[in-house]
C-alpha cells in the first residue's frame, strides 16, 4: 500500500522568518522590578540585563527606557541612605547596580527619559516609530486613561 503525505507549512518561509526581527523596546523599570520580586519591589539591574541579552542574542535590536535618576549615583546613594534611616523611599526607585546600568548605557542599550516626565510615553512612542514591540508587564492603564481624557476634551 502506498500512502500519500501532504505537508502543510503554516507561517513564514524560513528565509523570511529569519530576516524580520522586530525592534524590541523594553520598559526598563517594569522589567527590573519584576525580576527583583513583586513582594520586595527591588530594582534588579541584572533582570534588565537578562532581558536585553535574551533579545540581542536572538538578533533583535533592543533598547530599554529608564528614568534618568536611576543612573545618577549621588541620587541613588541619597535614596539608599533615606531608606536606611526609615524615610519612605520605595525600593523600586533604587537600582541595585548603577555600574551595570552605565555599562549597558555605554553599549547603547539604554535610553534615559527626563526624571519628571512620564517615561512610558517615550517607550510607547519609540516602539511605534520603529514598528517594534514592547516588553513589559504594564497594562498602561494610566496612559490609556490619559489618551481617553485628551480625546474627550
Q: Biggest β-sheet, characterized?
A: 4 strands, parallel
Poorly predicted sequence stretches spanning 5 or more consecutive residues: 1-16
Mean pLDDT: 77
Assign a percent range to the helix content.
40-55%
Q: So how many helices?
A: 7
Question: So what's the overall shape?
Answer: globular
N→C terminal distance: 73 Å
Structure write-up:
The chain has 153 residues and is an alpha/beta fold. 46% of the residues lie in helices and 11% in strands. It has 7 helices and 4 strands, in the order H-E-H-H-E-H-H-E-H-E-H. The chain has helices spanning 14-19, 28-36, 45-56, 73-84, 98-106, 119-129, 141-152, and strands at 24-27, 62-67, 110-113, 133-135. Strands 3-2-1-4 form a 4-stranded parallel sheet, with helices on both faces. The longest helix is centred in the first third of the chain and has 12 residues, at 45-56. The radius of gyration is 20 Å and the shape is globular. The N and C termini lie far apart (73 Å). The relative contact order is 0.18.
Amino acid at each position: 500500500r502506498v500512502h500519500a503525505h501532504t505537508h502543510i507549512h503554516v507561517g513564514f518561509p524560513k528565509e523570511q522568518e529569519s530576516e524580520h526581527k522586530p525592534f524590541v523596546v523594553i520598559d526598563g523599570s517594569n522589567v527590573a522590578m519584576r525580576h527583583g520580586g513583586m513582594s520586595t519591589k527591588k530594582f534588579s539591574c541584572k533582570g534588565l540585563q537578562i532581558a536585553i541579552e535574551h533579545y540581542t542574542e536572538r538578533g533583535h535590536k533592543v533598547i530599554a527606557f529608564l528614568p534618568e535618576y536611576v543612573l545618577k549615583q549621588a541620587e541613588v546613594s541619597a535614596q539608599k541612605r533615606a531608606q536606611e534611616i526609615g524615610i519612605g523611599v520605595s525600593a523600586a526607585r533604587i537600582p541595585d547596580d548603577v555600574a551595570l546600568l552605565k555599562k549597558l548605557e555605554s553599549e547603547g542599550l539604554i535610553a534615559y527619559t527626563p526624571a519628571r516626565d512620564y517615561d512610558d510615553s517615550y517607550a510607547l512612542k519609540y516602539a511605534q516609530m520603529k514598528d517594534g514591540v514592547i516588553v513589559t508587564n504594564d497594562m498602561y492603564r494610566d496612559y490609556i486613561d490619559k489618551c481617553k481624557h485628551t480625546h474627550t476634551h
